[in-house]
């Protein structure tokens, strides 16, 4: 993993790669004498640039606002884009993913020229992952004619989602075949930041992506999906154990290679503190005594206590070890953390008979007295939730849970970008088996998905107890609920599953104008301005819905090909 410290330099040196999208008639004055000639670039040096960029961007989605969509987390302030899906055009996101493709395209080209079969497999797998993410997020996109700027293709046509998904599947099949016989002697140790040159693990990762995309298209291309999943299952080569998950570690040497809410680069801790567990996820976990709960979340700092003897409706001040702290309505998060670490307990009492909400227009009760308390999805103003005494700009809700302190860190431990997992593969096979496909037993795969997720988060010793609490009863809803939980910090997969199955049955809150969960990202004005005819052609193929709103077809609530005609998710 030492290669990470060189990544900024590698990125600088490889800046010349943008030329891959330009015409070759650049004048000599534009040549960079300090750059690396793309014609002599070493594939080993190209790999970490692609892999680390993709890992960080994918985590940014799955730990970020997509976690808000699938109600893993909510933000308790400044929450329009996170809780309420008030999205605008996705220009930066679009540029990021196509930027990775340009570098990856050179990785593949140089690997072929040099006969590096292992690197070819890596490049094809990453190409499929990146294009798959683009198609998943937006719908139709430049694919066949993308990355051909040096050949004069400056305004590429958009391929259909169907064409892109079929191309992804073919690339992954080719990559899997390459890994089966790849020569790894050309690999320089340390440059593969996922598997450090282990070609079998790469083949498992590649085949697990095949499982993902076969299931993704299962409603539209059921015969293709069935045959593909059955073949992968029969091969036995896919992610089966959490130790083989496709992950990228964060090393924390700079803000760019640290966890997104690392307090080393967020001195006020506001980015970490603002993000709270969503009640949808947290309540589900509490109900089944899920052992991952205490790994991901903290108990409330100040717990509400129902007290019928209380003369007033609610304590004005907090209580420390049962003693009212006169004049103290709240403490800062840092103060409470120090006091609780020292063994003190904080509470506030209320009389359930006489209690009346201070702002019934924003929070109408009842007070949540739980040890773990999540923020309900889509509140009008979540800063007021559970009678938080510090609202607005000063929000530090002592009556709602926070994420584990591990997510204030910069590196190590839980802080990994997870691109694919053994748990995901097991749940896909469980769903396939429930359809009647030859993919093993639905219950066995369901149980294994749970087991692998618990192993990922260090609580595998509690598997026997937990699996009894969520025992499989033959429903798809159970499979998708456990898969949704297991996709913590990789929420994009939960979003795409919800889109095709309407499971879990997530209910939007009262704040979103749409009253529905979004289905896609919005094509940007930059693309419309620069490649307008092709973008408008792609937009025209989207299906406008009752929720699409003023953006009409180019809306986050319009349906791409993948869910058109399926009746899903609504």
UniProtKB/TrEMBL annotation:
<keyword id="KW-0732">Signal</keyword>
<feature type="signal peptide">
    <location>
        <begin position="1"/>
        <end position="24"/>
    </location>
</feature>
<protein>
    <recommendedName>
        <fullName>Lipoprotein</fullName>
    </recommendedName>
</protein>
<dbReference type="Pfam" id="PF12771">
    <property type="entry name" value="SusD-like_2"/>
</dbReference>
<dbReference type="InterPro" id="IPR041662">
    <property type="entry name" value="SusD-like_2"/>
</dbReference>
<dbReference type="InterPro" id="IPR011990">
    <property type="entry name" value="TPR-like_helical_dom_sf"/>
</dbReference>
């Amino acid at each position: 993993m030492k290669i990470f410290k060189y990544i900024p330099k590698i990125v600088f040196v490889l800046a010349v790669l943008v030329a891959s999208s330009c015409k070759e008639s650049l004048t000599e004055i534009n040549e960079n004498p300090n750059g690396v000639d793309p014609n002599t670039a070493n594939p080993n040096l190209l790999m970490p640039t692609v892999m680390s960029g993709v890992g960080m961007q994918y985590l940014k989605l799955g730990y970020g606002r997509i976690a808000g969509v699938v109600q893993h987390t909510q933000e308790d302030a400044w929450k329009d884009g996170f809780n309420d899906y008030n999205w605008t055009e996705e220009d930066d996101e679009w540029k990021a993913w196509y930027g990775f493709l340009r570098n990856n395209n050179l990785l593949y080209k140089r690997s072929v020229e040099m006969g590096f079969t292992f690197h070819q497999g890596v490049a094809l797998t990453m190409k499929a992952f990146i294009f798959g993410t683009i198609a998943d997020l937006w719908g139709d996109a430049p694919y066949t004619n993308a990355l051909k700027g040096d050949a004069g293709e400056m305004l590429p046509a958009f391929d259909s989602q169907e064409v892109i998904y079929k191309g992804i599947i073919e690339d992954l099949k080719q990559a899997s075949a390459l890994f089966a016989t790849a020569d790894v002697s050309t690999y320089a140790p340390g440059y593969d930041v996922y598997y450090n040159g282990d070609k079998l693990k790469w083949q498992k990762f590649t085949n697990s992506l095949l499982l993902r995309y076969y299931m993704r298209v299962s409603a539209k291309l059921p015969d293709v999906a069935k045959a593909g999943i059955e073949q992968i299952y029969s091969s036995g080569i896919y992610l089966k154990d959490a130790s083989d998950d496709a992950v990228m570690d964060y090393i924390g040497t700079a803000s760019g290679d640290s966890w997104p809410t690392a307090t080393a680069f967020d001195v006020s801790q506001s980015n970490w503190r603002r993000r709270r567990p969503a009640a949808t996820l947290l309540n589900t976990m509490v109900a089944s005594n899920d052992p991952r709960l205490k790994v991901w979340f903290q108990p409330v700092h100040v717990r509400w206590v129902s007290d019928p003897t209380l003369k007033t409706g609610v304590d004005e001040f907090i209580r420390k070890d049962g003693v009212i702290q006169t004049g103290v309505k709240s403490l800062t998060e840092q103060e409470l953390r120090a006091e609780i670490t020292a063994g003190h307990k904080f509470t506030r009492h209320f009389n359930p008979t006489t209690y009346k909400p201070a702002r019934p227009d924003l929070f109408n009760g009842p007070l949540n007295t739980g040890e773990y308390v999540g923020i309900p999805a889509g509140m009008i103003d979540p800063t007021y939730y559970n009678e938080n005494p510090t609202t607005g700009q000063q929000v530090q809700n002592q009556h709602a849970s926070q994420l584990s302190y591990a997510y204030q860190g910069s590196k190590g431990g839980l802080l990994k970008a997870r691109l694919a997992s053994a748990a995901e593969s097991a749940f896909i096979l469980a769903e396939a088996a429930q359809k009647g496909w030859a993919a093993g037993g639905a219950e066995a795969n369901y149980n294994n998905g749970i087991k692998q997720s618990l192993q990922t988060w260090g609580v595998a010793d509690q598997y026997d107890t937990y699996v009894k609490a969520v025992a499989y009863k033959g429903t798809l809803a159970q499979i998708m609920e456990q898969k949704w939980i297991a996709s913590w910090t990789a929420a994009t997969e939960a979003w795409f599953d919800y889109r095709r199955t309407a499971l879990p049955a997530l209910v939007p809150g009262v704040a979103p104008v749409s009253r529905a969960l979004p289905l896609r990202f919005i094509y940007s004005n930059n693309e419309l301005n620069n490649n307008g005819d092709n973008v408008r052609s792609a937009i025209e193929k989207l299906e406008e819905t009752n929720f699409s709103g003023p953006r009409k077809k180019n809306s986050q609530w319009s349906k791409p090909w993948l869910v058109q005609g399926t009746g899903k998710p609504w």
